[in-house]
Specification:
The complex is a heterodimer of chains A (146) and B (177). With 146 residues, chain A is mostly helical. Chain A has helices spanning 6-28, 37-55, 59-90, 115-143. Chain A has 4 helices and no strands. The radius of gyration of chain B is 22 Å and the shape is extended. In chain B, 14% of the residues are buried. Chain B has a domain at 1-77. In chain B, α2 (25-45) packs antiparallel against α3.
């Protein structure tokens, strides 16, 4: 895929970090305001897809990025399962997904036990999944030899 | 309120009909975007901001991925084979419509008015929402009461990504040999 003009590239450079920050905000405040892991993860994936669209695909970089993303995705879903299993160990009762951390005060940023941690893990997983699908579509189409 | 929803519904139906019959695949994908963004607006009118955020973002990313697919393949639709057995098709459509409307009428006849809450299942969740310690009720339900469903969703996404990678990679490998 070819890149775009310098105007688009410069504006992308300015806008992508803001989108990333917004996605991070949505994920971290998932237990307080509308949003959460899924929505924030997709917004963060948008912040990764935008520079690829604007700058064009440089194949070696993208292949490296894809390997990292696969690792990140697998680690995130494993982390989700591990958090669920920790509930079995530490909560006293034998319940999968039991909220074993301290609940805290309603409405504070650090509250609601392990829900914020789950939000972050799911956000990482969704972000990696979306970006991997996009990179697969762009990389593998150019990879085919003539 | 219901008037706005009806206008949105008509727009969405028109958009999907156009995307079915468009010759150019790019314009088909873009007119299909009308359906997604109409759904976003109806979620906002029905006071579901969580769903609206997810829908707007997923719609944008899906449009980008679809346009990437079209740029890599072809913009023109393949010539369609027309089937001239109109009578059989018409009879099938008629039977389907009658059965659909009968079942729809039977199933929705006992529901309450549109907009009234019918929350036999959700009432214990709403009353027990203080137990999760989460200020956002939806996140409290999704990540605490219904955490199994969230695990399933994450697994589905993971499997989908593995499937995409596998299928695309095999296609690339076959041409090498």
């Amino acid at each position: 895929m070819r890149g775009m003009t310098i105007i688009v590239r410069k504006i992308t450079q300015l806008v992508a970090p803001v989108i990333f920050l917004y996605g991070l905000y949505i994920i971290v405040h998932g237990h307080l305001t509308p949003g959460g892991g899924f929505a924030g993860g997709v917004i963060m994936a948008g912040a990764f897809i935008l520079p690829i669209l604007a700058n064009g695909s440089i194949l070696p970089n993208l292949r490296k990025e894809e390997a990292g993303l696969e690792l990140m995705e697998s680690a995130a879903i494993l982390g989700f399962l591990i958090i669920a299993g920790l509930g079995l160990l530490f909560s006293g009762s034998l319940i999968f997904f039991s909220n074993f951390l301290h609940k805290g005060i309603l409405g504070k940023l650090v509250s609601a036990g392990f829900i914020p941690i789950e939000n972050i893990v799911v956000g990482v997983e969704v972000c990696a999944a979306m970006t991997t699908i996009f990179i697969a579509l762009t990389v593998f189409s150019e990879e085919v030899p003539k | 309120m219901e008037v706005y929803l009806l206008i949105l519904l008509v727009l969405m139906i028109l958009g999907s009909l156009y995307s079915l019959h468009a010759r150019d695949l790019l314009s088909a994908v873009i007119s299909y975007g009308i359906v997604g963004f109409g759904l976003v607006l109806s979620f906002l009118f029905l006071q579901a901001p969580d769903l609206a955020i997810v829908q707007v973002v997923v719609e944008v990313i899906t449009l980008i991925i679809m346009i990437a697919v079209i740029k890599n393949t072809s913009r023109e639709e393949l010539p369609r084979q027309t089937n001239y057995k109109i009578a059989i098709n018409f009879i099938i459509i008629l039977i389907f419509a009658v059965v659909f409307f009968y079942i729809f009428n039977r199933m929705t006849g006992m529901l309450s008015e549109f907009g009234d809450h019918f929350t036999r299942m959700a009432t214990p969740y709403i009353e027990g929402s203080g137990k999760t310690g989460s200020a956002n009720l939806v996140t409290g339900i999704v990540f605490d009461f219904r955490a199994y469903d969230t695990l399933g969703e994450a697994t589905v996404l993971f499997t989908a990504v593995i499937g995409v990678l596998t299928i695309l990679r095999i296609k690339g490998r076959k041409k090498e040999e």
